[in-house]
Recover the amino acids of this structure.
């Protein structure tokens, strides 16, 4: 390891970006490396070591230690505007838009890896020739060569930003600290929205360890290929690799949020699920919402849906029945831990919303719309000549439907023209605190008490609007069987129903069989703690269609009607549930339909025998192919029992 020291101040200008050198780090190996911002010596020693090692590897031309302040964000924003990478959306306060290289628009699941010494720490024992779909494994040796062919010198000519951040309220008992190194200033701006980025985290780090994130767009200077849209990226060389034992993430070649904002999917799900298993808690792809009934009693619910299936919309739902109130704690990730009192508590580790823009409107999600009226960044949406954002779903709300726009590909576009205004996975990045219905306890370090967990997906056929599982273990089985139609959040094209167990398929951090076992084990309290009050588990499907392909349920704000039923079940109302082979469904009349256009109850709620007979066969094949001997016996038993119940229908 090299020893570093810093030299005195010297206000020398560096490069063409108007940055000044405030200090220097001297490396035995590299000589003088300019510090452009911050005081290296104020970083904890272990962070200094991490930074110096990676500087030696990636060889940036300067180091910028971020403090997360408004001044810093303004400075970076102004530079990006000058360079043409960001532009202000003039119709709002402090909102910006950027367009990516069109090859860098979504998560790349096929290039996302977990690196563990033993393959089966990452993946299940699948039969010969069957590719595991939950987590991809990369051998440490292969990882080393992939790393060696990408990272040495990858930041040359660029500035390396050092981002210290907390997932969860700084210093909270459920929170964790990360340090991300990146050469993308867009990433700095988005991390500032999505995480708590502040020098206060250095004090709270103490003896604790931190998660290491190393991110490079993979385009060292001088660049060899033309940079498109001022968005450097290296799509042919993308690699997103995690070393769970080392709590380390290596991301190369992409600036798209899911690949580059390392606090989110990489840390808060893939790495955190490993930490959670070691420490006895859960890191899940779930929203958390507080729902208050007309009697004023509030319950907190966590809900898991695959990407782009409406978690943000549900978390911010505007109830259509009077007297109900919904407040959002989080819209994408939940970290949950049982307290010594036996209650499950959950926090949202994030600080912002990175939501899918198309489909978001005042009709579908007015509270999300309110959240991004200022201080937000829009990626791959369209922009009108009046400086407004635009995407599919805003047709009825746009002030001037004839207005000229620039679409996400940078071409002139009008409503009605061929092609799309916005990319289907275009995003808004908005501070959570700006949401008018953010829960007052959303930053409670201890978390909020979770009483129910909902799983769901896009299931056009066969799956009722709502059912309640029979038990914790049956709920785990149902979550293991979760499926959904594919969306644009990853690289998939075309519509097909895919397995997405626990809505975690793209984010699974370790062997799925062990993950199921971990969920099962959590029901048992350690000695000396109160018995665990496991939440009830439900399954919902807002997306069932009739023969003509029309949705049978209005969804959005009307989903409160389903939540109302769920909450009555939590409150011990046993009179409104019908036992079916897959779980309890509401009896007709037990869901409040006041003010709703008539719905086809039977079509919406039916549990068709033939469909479920096929489903059980398909699930058995899926378990055999994808989980194999790693499937806990209890879950296999749940499948057998469900099969018997269906056969007896
Ligand atoms: C997301 C995703 O960005 O799940 O939240 O893809
Ligand atoms: Mn997500």
């Amino acid at each position: 390891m090299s020893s570093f020291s810093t030299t005195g101040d010297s206000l020398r200008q560096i490069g063409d970006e108007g940055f000044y050198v405030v200090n220097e780090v001297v490396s035995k190996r590299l000589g003088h490396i300019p510090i452009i911002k911050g005081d290296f010596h104020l970083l904890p020693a272990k962070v200094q070591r991490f930074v110096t090692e990676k500087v030696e590897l990636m060889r940036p031309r300067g180091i910028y230690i971020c403090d997360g302040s408004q001044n810093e964000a303004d400075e970076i924003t102004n530079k990006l505007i000058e360079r043409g990478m960001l532009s202000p959306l003039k119709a709002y306060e402090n909102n910006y838009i950027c367009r990516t290289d069109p090859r860098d628009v979504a998560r790349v699941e096929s290039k996302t890896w977990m690196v563990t010494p033993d393959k089966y720490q990452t993946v299940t024992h699948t039969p010969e020739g069957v590719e595991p779909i939950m987590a991809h494994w990369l051998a440490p040796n292969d990882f080393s060569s992939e790393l060696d062919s990408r990272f040495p010198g990858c930041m040359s000519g660029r500035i390396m930003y050092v981002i210290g951040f907390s997932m969860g309220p700084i210093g909270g008992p459920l929170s964790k600290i990360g340090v991300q190194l990146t050469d993308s200033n867009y990433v700095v701006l988005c991390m500032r929205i999505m995480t708590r980025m502040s020098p206060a985290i250095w004090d709270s780090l103490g003896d604790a360890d931190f998660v290491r994130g190393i991110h490079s767009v993979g385009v060292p200077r001088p660049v060899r290929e033309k940079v498109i849209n001022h968005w450097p990226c290296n799509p042919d060389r993308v690699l997103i690799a995690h070393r769970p034992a080392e709590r380390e993430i290596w991301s190369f070649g992409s600036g798209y949020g899911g690949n580059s904002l390392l606090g989110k999917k990489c840390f808060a799900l893939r790495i955190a699920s490993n930490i959670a298993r070691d420490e006895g808690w859960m890191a899940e792809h779930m929203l958390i919402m507080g729902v208050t009934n007309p009697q004023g009693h509030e319950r907190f619910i966590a809900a898991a849906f695959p990407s782009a299936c409406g978690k943000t919309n549900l978390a911010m739902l505007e109830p259509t029945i009077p007297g109900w109130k919904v407040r959002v704690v989080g819209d994408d990730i939940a970290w949950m831990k049982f307290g010594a009192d036996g209650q499950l508590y959950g926090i949202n580790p994030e600080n912002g919303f990175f939501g899918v823009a198309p489909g978001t409107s005042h009709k579908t999600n007015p509270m999300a719309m309110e959240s991004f009226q200022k201080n937000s960044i829009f990626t791959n949406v369209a922009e009108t000549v009046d400086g407004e954002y635009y995407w599919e779903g805003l047709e009825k709300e746009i002030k001037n439907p004839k207005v000229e726009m620039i679409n996400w590909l940078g071409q002139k576009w009008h409503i009605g023209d061929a092609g799309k205004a916005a990319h289907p996975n275009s995003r808004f990045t908005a501070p959570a605190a700006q949401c008018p219905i953010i829960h007052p306890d959303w930053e409670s370090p201890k978390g909020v008490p979770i009483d129910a967990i909902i799983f769901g997906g896009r299931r056009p056929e066969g799956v009722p609007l709502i059912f309640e599982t029979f038990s914790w273990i049956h709920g785990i089985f149902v979550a293991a069987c979760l499926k959904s139609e594919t969306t644009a959040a990853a690289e998939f094209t075309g519509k097909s129903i895919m397995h997405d167990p626990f809505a975690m398929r793209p984010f699974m951090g370790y062997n799925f069989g062990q993950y199921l076992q971990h969920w099962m084990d959590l029901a048992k309290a350690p000695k000396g703690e109160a018995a665990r009050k496991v939440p009830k588990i439900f399954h919902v499907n807002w997306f069932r269609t009739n023969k003509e392909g029309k949705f049978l349920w209005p969804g959005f704000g009307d989903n409160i009607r389903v939540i109302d039923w769920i909450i009555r079940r939590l409150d011990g109302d046993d009179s409104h549930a019908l036992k079916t082979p897959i779980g309890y469904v509401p009896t007709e009349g037990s869901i409040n339909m006041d003010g709703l256009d008539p719905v086809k109850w039977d079509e919406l709620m039916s549990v068709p025998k033939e469909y479920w007979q096929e489903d059980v066969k398909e699930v058995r094949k899926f378990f055999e192919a994808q989980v194999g001997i790693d499937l806990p016996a209890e879950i296999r038993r749940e499948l057998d029992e469900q099969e018997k119940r269906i056969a007896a229908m």
The chain has three domains: 11-86+104-280, 283-350+440-647, 353-434. The two ends are 68 Å apart (CA to CA). The chain has a mean pLDDT of 94. The longest strand covers residues 159-167.
